[in-house]
Write a structure and sequence with these properties.
This protein is α+β, with helices and mostly antiparallel strands and 366 residues long. 36% of the residues lie in helices and 27% in strands.
Length: 366
């Protein structure tokens, strides 16, 4: 599917399939995908061309078993040579707002759906409208490899990190008891220190569209402020432009109307001093972007905010919490474990520039 009308007609099929994938990430939902498409693909962010190609796979019964949304992104070398078909949620030329490129495969049908998508892309490689197409899937037990796929393309399989997760127990007391002693002590220590050195403070949660709208602006400001702060570990600014800020506002409003987002913030007499967004999906929650003012850094404000959200998530009956890939030290403090690595396949059309890049990438370790 390559037209706006055809993509928008996918909403019901997309939502149904999302409910039947093995791990239904909130970053693969229709709400995320449609706003990402509008802001970054149609908005031609970075080197996005505005073109897209959504591959939909059906089985013999007519059920949708796979959806892979791809958009065209130019490499720096030009608009013809170097065109890459990227999954939504992935980019080399702009901040993609997610660590989880979108691919949807029905549980129990992953292998057939992945094979169908790759065959479809390989059959079109000869047209040379793109240089390389990237497909992410969750199939395991594979090794990095470079192989010839028919006469039109070369496939490069590489491993990719996946989200870290925690399986939640039935009570906050049980969860807290599983934390390290130093972590338990810190939760009590920072809470008391905040009261002693700052004065009255509280943690509040925004969930309604009106509350979320106001809190989103505070989160964006604090997130950008955190990226500029010299305190602690350096952090990237994931909301660098007005387009990124608009995406966050529109996506969060969609989620708020469904009761699927919590913006948790810490307030003192000076107002909101720290905030973090948490996205909720079917029976699970995901930790998203955060920010803080430097005057609450020494009180580990984000730790207190996360603890409050985890307490509420357990009370609400969520069974699993996800942390972004690559957040091992921070997520491990809460007991998160790395998930199995995903497979990312780059399908190179057979032409001289594509083959040179494939070989260089394979043997340079990039």
């Amino acid at each position: 599917m390559t037209t706006e009308a055809a993509f928008l007609e996918l909403e019901s099929d997309w939502t149904e399939l999302w409910g039947h994938v093995r791990h239904p990430s909130p970053f693969h939902s229709w709400d995320f995908a449609v706003e990402w498409w509008r802001h970054f693909v149609l908005g031609r962010s970075g080197r996005a061309t505005g073109a897209f190609d959504v591959v939909v796979v059906h089985d013999r019964l007519g059920r949708t078993i796979g959806i892979v949304p791809l958009f065209a992104e130019r490499r720096a070398v030009g608009s013809v040579v170097g065109v890459r078909l990227q999954p939504f949620g992935r980019s080399y030329s702009f901040e993609p707002m997610s660590d989880e490129p979108i691919t949807l495969f029905r549980e129990g049908h992953e292998q057939a759906a992945v094979a169908a998508v790759k065959d479809h892309l390989a059959s079109r490689a000869g047209a040379r409208t793109w240089d390389v197409a990237v497909v992410r899937d969750s199939l395991q037990d594979f090794r990095d490899s470079l192989s010839l796929s028919g006469r039109r393309c070369v496939e490069l399989d590489r491993s990719a990190p996946s989200a870290m997760s925690i399986r939640l127990p039935s009570t906050w007391q049980l969860f807290r008891s599983r934390l390290s002693k130093s972590m338990r002590d810190n939760l009590a220590f920072y809470s008391k220190r905040m009261a002693r050195e700052v004065g009255p403070w509280k943690i509040r949660t925004a969930r309604t569209p009106g509350e979320v709208g106001l809190a989103t602006d505070a989160l964006i400001s604090l997130h950008r402020q955190r990226s500029r702060s010299p305190l602690g570990i350096p952090h990237c600014n994931h909301i660098p432009t007005a387009v990124h800020a608009s995406f966050v506002r529109h996506w969060f409003q969609r989620l708020a109307r469904r009761g699927a987002v919590s913006l948790v913030f810490l307030e003192t007499r000076k107002g909101i001093r720290a905030a973090q967004a948490f996205i909720e999906g079917p029976d699970c929650g995901s930790v998203y972007y955060s920010g803080f003012d430097e005057d609450v850094y020494r009180f580990s404000a984000l730790t207190l905010i996360t603890a409050e959200w985890l307490r509420g998530s357990i009370a609400a009956g969520l069974s699993r919490i996800y942390f972004p890939p690559g957040s091992s030290a921070w997520a491990a403090r809460w007991g998160a474990q790395p998930g199995p690595e995903a497979r990312e396949t780059s399908i190179y059309a057979i032409n001289a520039p594509a083959l040179i890049r494939a070989v260089v990438r394979r043997y340079s370790g990039r």
